[in-house]
UniProtKB/TrEMBL annotation:
<dbReference type="GO" id="GO:0004803">
    <property type="term" value="F:transposase activity"/>
</dbReference>
<dbReference type="GO" id="GO:0006313">
    <property type="term" value="P:DNA transposition"/>
</dbReference>
<dbReference type="GO" id="GO:0003677">
    <property type="term" value="F:DNA binding"/>
</dbReference>
<dbReference type="InterPro" id="IPR003346">
    <property type="entry name" value="Transposase_20"/>
</dbReference>
<dbReference type="InterPro" id="IPR047650">
    <property type="entry name" value="Transpos_IS110"/>
</dbReference>
<dbReference type="Pfam" id="PF02371">
    <property type="entry name" value="Transposase_20"/>
</dbReference>
<feature type="domain" description="Transposase IS116/IS110/IS902 C-terminal">
    <location>
        <begin position="6"/>
        <end position="48"/>
    </location>
</feature>
<protein>
    <recommendedName>
        <fullName>Transposase IS116/IS110/IS902 C-terminal domain-containing protein</fullName>
    </recommendedName>
</protein>
Length: 87
């Protein structure tokens, strides 16, 4: 049995993208998240707040990517354009 490379105190290998993953889509989504953090006020505040809490910036960026995917899925499911919430 091969040793696990994802847990424990002696992790020596970097994590990698799974071979089944669509790397082009992942790269595009990453670029979208970077752009959203710069231009979308709601996501910019979220990113800065989490980064100031001491979270890893790549972890926060991954959260932003997830938020973008959830927005896209909601638009497709509801068949309505995205509208920002006004609090």
């Amino acid at each position: 049995m091969l040793p696990s490379c994802s847990s424990g105190s002696s992790v020596q290998k970097r994590s990698r993208v799974h071979h089944i993953a669509n790397k082009t889509m992942k790269k595009q989504l990453h670029m979208c998240a970077l752009s959203a953090v710069r231009h979308d006020p709601e996501l910019k505040i979220y990113y800065e707040r989490k980064a100031n809490e001491g979270k890893n910036k790549m972890l926060v960026l991954n959260n932003v990517r997830n938020k973008l995917v959830l927005r896209v899925c909601a638009v497709i499911k509801r068949q309505k354009p995205y509208q920002k919430r006004v609090a």
